[in-house]
């Protein structure tokens, strides 16, 4: 079984390093902003020094030709689920929730923080997004639908 927590952290850390190099800035100056579209699907913005630079896709973050394990779809699904949970936990509409991924140093790795509009809500852990509780939450939501 794939450990999506570690896999996602490695993928996103690598992407952020690549984006920093492409933008000609340091790792600390590169962020990824996640919000949701009207369908509740995550959308990604590359940011430089906390200013939006351009839209990016999961393919930009994880540019492999053959995603045999379906990691891109699973990562997207887990992120969408986490955004729904943050919105529910904070009592705010999901359309007003954002998550910023950033790195203060290569040693610390990618960190995540949830915002309501521009107000800080809470730091997020990788386990919150990709851990067992997240998986159980998704399974529970699917069973409530049927």
Can you walk through the features of this model?
- It is a single chain.
- The chain has 146 residues and is an alpha+beta fold.
- The protein has one domain: Signal recognition particle alu RNA binding heterodimer, srp9/1 (2-Layer Sandwich).
- The protein is built from five helices and six strands.
- A hairpin with a 5-residue loop joins strand 1 (30-36) and strand 2 (42-48).
- The chain is globular and about 40 Å long.
- Residues 142-146 have low confidence and may be disordered.
List keywords for this structure.
alpha+beta, Signal recognition particle alu RNA binding heterodimer, srp9/1, six-stranded antiparallel beta sheet, 5 helices, 6 strands
CATH architectural name: 2-Layer Sandwich
Structural class: alpha+beta
Order of helices and strands: HEEEHHEEEHH
Give a short account of the largest sheet. 6 strands, antiparallel
What is the end-to-end distance?
Answer: 26 Å
Runs with pLDDT <50, length 5+?
142-146
What is the typical, i.e. mean, pLDDT?
85
CATH class: Alpha Beta
Write the layout of secondary structure elements.
Elements: H1 4-23, E1 30-36, E2 42-48, E3 51-56, H2 58-61, H3 71-90, E4 97-103, E5 110-116, E6 119-124, H4 126-130, H5 132-145
Antiparallel strand pairs: 1-2, 1-4, 2-3, 4-5, 5-6
Summarize the structure.
By secondary structure, the protein is an alpha+beta fold. The protein has helices at residues 4-23, 58-61, 71-90, 126-130, 132-145; strands at residues 30-36, 42-48, 51-56, 97-103, 110-116, 119-124.
